[in-house]
Amino acid sequence: MTGIEQTTVDPTPGDTGLRDEPAEQPSVTQRQPRRGSALRALVRRPLAVLSLLWLVAVGVMSVGADALAPYRPTNTDLTHVLAGPNGQHWLGTDQLGRDILSRVLFGGQGVLLGIVEVTLVFVVTGTVMGVPAGYFGRWVDWAVLRWIEITVALPAILILLLVLAVFPGNQHLAMVALGVLGGSGLARVIRAETQRVRTEQYVAAARVSGLRDGQILLRHVVPRLATTILVQASLMAAAAVGVQAGLSFLGLGVQEPEPSWGGLITQASQVLDRSSWMLVPPGGVIGLTMLSLALLGDAVRDVMVQRWSVAPARHGGTGNGEPPVRDEGEGESTEFGGATGQAAPSPLLAVRGLTVAFRTGGARTAVVQGVGFHVDRSEILGIVGESGCGKSVTVSAVLGLLPSSAEVRALSCRFDGAELLSLPDRDRHALRGTRIGYVSQEPMTALDPTCRVGDLLAEAVRRHHGLDRRAARARAVELLDLVNIPDPGAVSRRYPHQISGGMAQRVAIALALAGDPDLLVADEPTTALDARVQAEILALLRRLQAERGLAIVLITHDWGVAAQLCARAVVMYAGQVVEQGPVGTLYHSPAHPYTAGLLAANPHRALDRTSADSGTTKHLTRLPTIPGTVPPPAAWPTSCHFQDRCPLAAADCTRRPIPLAAVTSDHYSRCIHIDRVRELDTEDAS
Ligand SMILES: Nc1ncnc2c1ncn2[C@@H]1O[C@H](COP(=O)(O)OP(=O)(O)OP(=O)(O)O)[C@@H](O)[C@H]1O
């Protein structure tokens, strides 16, 4: 992600990084495991098919026992006791001459009902507790965790015995109790899973697009938990079969003469010395049913994981192993804000003195320190820097997307005149999606894999424009067309994993445009894409800016991207703005050693210089790099943050905080050795 650690390059000759043409590089196609319909994938697994067949057979035969069973389960025939399998009684008879097959079939009815009761209560309890705990955190999480601790500490068997002691023979109540107790365990799993899902980009994108928490939970979070819930439910169902059999075996569940699988085991155990066969039918049916439930759960999990796994976004393939669907056509303020006063008279977004700190384990660490910048209407501003410099945290703070562990302060953070940080949550929420759109760096993870592309867009359109379903669908297709997607109608019916990475990024951009925003925040929107698709996405952004007057904040670590698209750029290093100015000025006359280092490490510029110096085009084999890496926030000094990696560092750099100072009227640098940066730049290039 740093983009400056490359050492060997062979860039396209003559590519300056400033030109507009797409780079002539082939699209990288990455083959992914095949992901067709879930049912088809399931059917290809023999064990899953056998399990399913067994469960369906048990279900049908139990439900249809009245019609299918050869005898009534309580009919006795004392002339044929303890018979083995024979023509009249396929599974033999018990000690009262009752037909075992009929008793197994009728006994299955109670088992099925018990499975349904346990599973329903288990899933509802686990989901209703786990999802809010994981999503909202804070006191909801605290309360749910305490409940889980209490219920998990209680021995389930004792609770069941207690229930059956108070309500003798009431197996239904016992199953409900089992579901509640098991549901606590499920809640713990779901809570953890929800905590993971809520950090996914598509949930952030849904939040930025203006969806409310309830809608996000129902539409984007719960469907992602389906696999976990299904697997856990199948295990719980298997356990329920065993528990029911156990209770009946102990004489606490279904009472004689009513048939039950556990009761059959009890009777078989009483005559084991005379007819060991009697144990086989109930033991077999219980064992096979439990095994089938567990195997089916495993198979469903494997299929769903494969189906929903998000392909690494750097690809031109569709992620299903099929050929890719072709992408056609493809002021500064100082810490104290605005001392430099370079913002346009009425910038669309103006941030002054933004500071963000995270609280972890009692410690408070500032990761963004006094950052300021502005974006004018229809302007594209780049925020450039290595990984860990605070670019994403800065824009997330502006968008209100940081977790509750973040402390955000700013002298001001104004969007179209409104102070964002003091806006009521409701109003700030309303701005996201409608006036400010957001595009993340991982297009695949920004789209909910469980929704069709058209549904995702239509949902956003309905939310922002209040259109009916049909009109929203039509608008969704228009949006796909707007972002140059060929055959938008067909693409709208596809799932995210069925489209290419470049197309997914276009869809993410269309999603961000659904509310007709004035400002688009794009966090490394092309990082994961190959060079051809990257050039197409940049061209699309430029077209949107030109045609719609869209202002764009573009986060990137790539000077080539900044140079192609942005009018001005802000260079961030270790939580601070270290340089800011017009891209051309920064590119040709950097005034901070960090900017100079980034530029020297940029293959396009290095090659450009080499060619200019020699009058010919050469292929570089080694690029200069900035030694070391960005230190962690806790290790940032109060004086110059770049001092440890800076070739110009001197004693005066380590004494006091270095202010951001004007180099010219629209160019600022946080370096006290600006005069030597040009030498440094020249030295590096020679
Ligand atoms: N939720 C968090 N809790 C604690 N620290 C965080 C959190 N999010 C980010 N940070 C820290 O803040 C610093 C800046 O992170 P940020 O993601 O903004 O960097 P970046 O410049 O955008 O890099 P990248 O391109 O890798 O996203 C990093 O040191 C990171 O570890």
TrEMBL record:
Q: Which ranges carry the ABC transporter domain?
A: 351-599
Q: Which GO terms describe its molecular function?
A: ATP binding; ATP hydrolysis activity
Provide the membrane topology annotation.
Multi-pass membrane protein; Peripheral membrane protein
Q: Which residues form the ABC transmembrane type-1 domain?
A: 112-297
Q: Say where the protein is mainly found.
A: membrane
Annotated region Disordered: the residues are 1-35, 312-344
Ranges of compositional bias, category Polar residues:
1-10
Among Gene3D superfamilies, the record links this protein to: MetI-like, P-loop containing nucleotide triphosphate hydrolases
Q: Which GO terms describe its cellular component?
A: plasma membrane
In which compartments does the protein localize?
Cell membrane; Membrane
Task: List membrane-spanning regions.
Answer: 47-69, 111-135, 147-167, 173-190, 229-255
GO annotations under biological process?
Answer: peptide transport; transmembrane transport
Any idea which UniProt keywords this protein has? ATP-binding, Cell membrane, Membrane, Nucleotide-binding, Transmembrane, Transmembrane helix, Transport
Pfam families hit by this protein: ABC_tran, BPD_transp_1, oligo_HPY, OppC_N
Q: What is the similarity comment for this entry?
A: Belongs to the ABC transporter superfamily.
What's this protein's name?
A: Peptide/nickel transport system permease protein
Organism, scientific name: Streptomyces melanosporofaciens
